């Protein structure tokens, strides 16, 4: 029986991509917890739905982290999976909600009406999440990363 060893990459860009994915997942988890805390403040909140939502997010984040470790080990399929997953569905899910709110607002005043410190914090965490995803994608396709994945996959 052969054991798979998850060794660090020899590519600086792959290492940076790995760190960026970890930052993105961490930001996503923090945002999920913050949003859940806000929802729990509402007396009519459905605790079961909130718990299942957190469970699903946790599962997705664990899968993404597992793929990130395979990326770090040099598996080409992991790079492709993260590029497609993070670069399409992941990034779209991060920008659709704020864009929809911006487009549906009847002016700037309506957009900032009801802003709270927690909503500002959630916004900051969302920006960190988006920047980390974009950084991960960028680093994943730099020259030294491409050389690392050449012939592997």
TrEMBL record:
Taxonomic source organism: Antrihabitans spumae
Stated name of the protein: DUF2127 domain-containing protein
Keywords: Membrane, Transmembrane, Transmembrane helix
Domain of life: Bacteria
Lineage: Bacteria, Bacillati, Actinomycetota, Actinomycetes, Mycobacteriales
TM ranges: 17-38, 50-69, 76-96, 116-139
């Amino acid at each position: 029986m052969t054991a798979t060893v998850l060794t660090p990459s020899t590519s600086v860009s792959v290492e940076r991509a790995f760190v960026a994915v970890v930052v993105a997942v961490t930001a996503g988890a923090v945002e999920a917890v913050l949003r859940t805390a806000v929802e729990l403040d509402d007396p009519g909140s459905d605790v079961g739905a909130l718990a299942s939502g957190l469970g699903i997010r946790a599962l997705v984040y664990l899968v993404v982290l597992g793929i990130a470790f395979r990326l770090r080990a040099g598996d080409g399929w992991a790079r492709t999976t993260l590029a497609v997953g993070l670069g399409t569905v992941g990034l779209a899910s991060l920008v659709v909600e704020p864009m929809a709110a911006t487009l549906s607002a009847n002016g700037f005043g309506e957009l900032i009406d009801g802003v709270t410190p927690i909503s500002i914090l959630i916004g900051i965490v969302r920006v960190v999440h988006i920047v980390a995803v974009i950084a991960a994608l960028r680093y994943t396709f730099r020259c030294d990363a491409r050389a690392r994945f050449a012939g592997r996959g």
